[in-house]
Amino acid sequence: MLAAALRPAPSLAALYPSTARPPSPTLLSFLPRPHHRLHLSATAEGAGTAAAAQEGASPSPASTPPIDESRLAQFAADWQAARAEKDQGKNLMLPVLRANSGGLIVRFNSLQGFVPNPLLSPAHWCKDPKRAIQDVTKDLVGSSISVKVVEVNEEERKLVFSEKDASWSTHSSKVKIGDIYDGIVGSVFHYGAFVHLRFPDGSYHLTGLVHISEVSWDLVQDVRDFLNEGDTVKVIVVNIDMEKSRIALSIRQLEDDPLLETLDKIIPLEADQSPNARITSSPAEADLLPGLDGICNELLQEDGITDVKFGRQALEKRVVSQDLELWLSSVPAKDNQFKLLARAGRQVQEVYLTTSLDQEGIKKAVQRVLGRVP
User: Which of 176, 254, 261, 313 has the most CB atoms in a 10 Å sphere around its CB?
Assistant: First the structure.
């Protein structure tokens, strides 16, 4: 089946909480402010205690140390360095200072930055999916993790890192379309489920999306009726978008299409019957699915397709889709003939193409036709 379009992933702003603006540098931004319970933005080195200070009184002027100009210059230089690292997109190995409910605090030179839980590599919690993420992140304190800079805002003292982006840079080149992985289901939404992929080294480095259309051959109205967080599944890679760092996965494409068996059960072939039995010569001689005749006429306009004929019809026991869909056979074209399956509701129609195109060429031709036909 043609790969379904993926919905855009949630924005970074939705993945971690916004933070309050710290005091002006002239008031020493690395000192605690009253009524700041927890500050997740980047702070100056040594600001960790202040960033997580509980409510309390403002420090008295007598207790305020003099401004260290050399330290301020170092902070400014490190903010500039962070911007450069973001532009270059390099992986950085940074030490983890502490963990909180939202993620990890890491050190970048004299600054501290934040790695939100959703931007951590799935390798950490897939070792024990039932374990709370807060317990997992506590175990990372004192270690170093590979991250990329994803946001730098010196004015708001916000420095954000992503371990997922670093993992993508390291492992995405190892993933190919058609690869099969064992996986663990992560977040489940109405449009699909995110699945963490297990690599040969035993770690879960990358995450892909199983769109709702790729969950099952049955009609799926709610993905949560089929998949739950923590489930173990086997998936196949059906598309990779390197530019957007996305992997499209399928569960159902690893299973035989039950439709093929249904056709043979409903319309069994006799011993002396050829696969072309009951084929009609034109759309007018068959009770076609609505819209199929227009699609077939458009297919004849494609270079490399010289004839379209219709084969057997059948009714399925369950509805796959109310809309007309074209399904490509998994069998390569042979003797200039290739089979499509048209499905709508419970009705199924075999369509035979006479073509000089290979399987990939037929796929592209069908995609072009479906783009032209409303």
Answer: 313
Q: Which of 273, 186, 170 is nearest to 223 (CA)?
A: 186
Q: Are 236 and 253 in contact (CB under 8 A)?
A: yes
Specify the 3-state DSSP secondary structure of 293.
helix
Task: Report, at the CATH architecture level, how domain 12-57+67-163 is classified.
Answer: Beta Barrel (2.40)
H/E stretch holding 69 reads helix 69-88
- Phi/psi for 370 (5° steps) reads -65, -25
User: Which residue blocks in 176-271 are alpha helix, DSSP H?
Assistant: 258-266
Residue that has been written with the tokens 């993420």 in this structure: 133
pLDDT tens digit sequence for 91-113: 999 999 999 999 999 999 999 99
Q: Helix, strand or coil for residue 371?
A: helix
pLDDT in tens, 143-193: 999 999 999 999 999 999 999 999 999 999 999 999 999 999 999 999 999
Q: How far apart are CA 304 and CA 354, in angstroms?
A: 8
**Does the global pTM surpass 0.85?**
no
Whether domain 175-254 has CATH 3.40.50.720: the reply is: no
Pairwise CA distance, residues 297 & 293, whole Å: 6
The answer to whether the CB of 292 falls within 8 A of the CB of 320 is: no
CA dist 78 and 232 (Å) reads: 43
User: What is the H or E stretch that residue 145 is in?
Assistant: strand 144-153
Helix (H) or strand (E) holding 72: helix 69-88
Alpha-carbon torsion (83, 89, 93, 96), positive or negative: positive
d(CA 342, CA 366) in angstroms, rounded, equals 12
DSSP output for 321-359: EEEEEEEE-SSPPBTTEEEEEEEEETEEEEEEEEES--H
DSSP 84-144: HHHHHT--EEEEEEEEETTEEEEEETTEEEEEEGGGS-TTTGGGSTTS-HHHHHHTTTTSE
The two beta strands, 204-211 and 246-250, are parallel
Of 277, 287, 289, 267, which is closest to residue 341 (Cα–Cα)?
289
In the chain, CATH 2.40.50.140 covers 12-57+67-163, 175-254
